[in-house]
Amino acid sequence: MSKILVTYATRAGSTVAVAEKIGEALRANGAIVDVCAVKEVRDVNGYAAVIIGSAIRMGSWLPEAVEFAKRNQAQLRQLPTAFFTCHRLNTSDDVTSRQAREAYTAPVRQIVTPKTEVFFNGTMDYAKLNFLDRTLAKAVEKSTNTKEGDFRNWDAIRAWAESLAPMLQVA
Question: Which helix or strand (DSSP H or E) is residue 121 part of?
Fold first, then answer.
């Protein structure tokens, strides 16, 4: 049985819940899965595939997720890899929104080319943010007409996870 790593970077916890849901869906399909924060992963030896996820801050993946990709670049280039991103902006299907989403992961795609990547609508819970992040989030909310709340689509997250086994060539 192939072992899959689902690793993530989060600021307020939304991305960890998505990573856990992905792990749960993969396990339900028979995979052996480890789910843990990128800061906890020493290396990716022993995994048949790696799924990396991050929240977005200031239009980019969190620094620790990018650093994880850099640190494990040689190994990740040899493994089937997938990316997931949790965000609250650019959620429409128009060209501008798609380009903005693609820009979130462009620096990471220069390090590792994923077999697939997906962008999930996330959450915004001001109570879980520090003062600076809360202030920034409220300013963005005013300028973009986004709202506080949980906008994750658990069915879409599960469906994407279930689609990964053949794509990542693991069984």
Answer: strand 116-121
Give the number of other CB atoms < 10 A from CB of residue 62.
20
Q: Where are the domains of the chain?
A: 3-165
The dihedrals phi and psi of 54, each to the nearest 5 degrees, come to: -150, 150
Give the whole-angstrom CA distance, residue 62 versus residue 105. Answer: 10
Whether the pLDDT of residue 143 is over 80: the answer is no
CA distances from 9 to 17, 36, 150 (A): 11, 9, 18
Residue listed under structure tokens 């990316």:
83
DSSP assignment string, 99-116: HHHHHHHHHHHTT---SE
Q: Is the pLDDT of residue 112 over 70?
A: yes
Determine the topology of domain 3-165 in CATH. Answer: Rossmann fold (3.40.50)
Residue whose C-alpha is closest to residue 9's, from 122, 130, 155: 122
Q: What was the pLDDT predicted at 96? A: 74
From the number of C-beta atoms within 10 Å of its C-beta (0-12, 13-18, 19+), residue 166 rates as exposed
Please compute, for residue 130, the number of CA atoms within 13 A of its CA located in the half-sphere on the CB side. Answer: 3
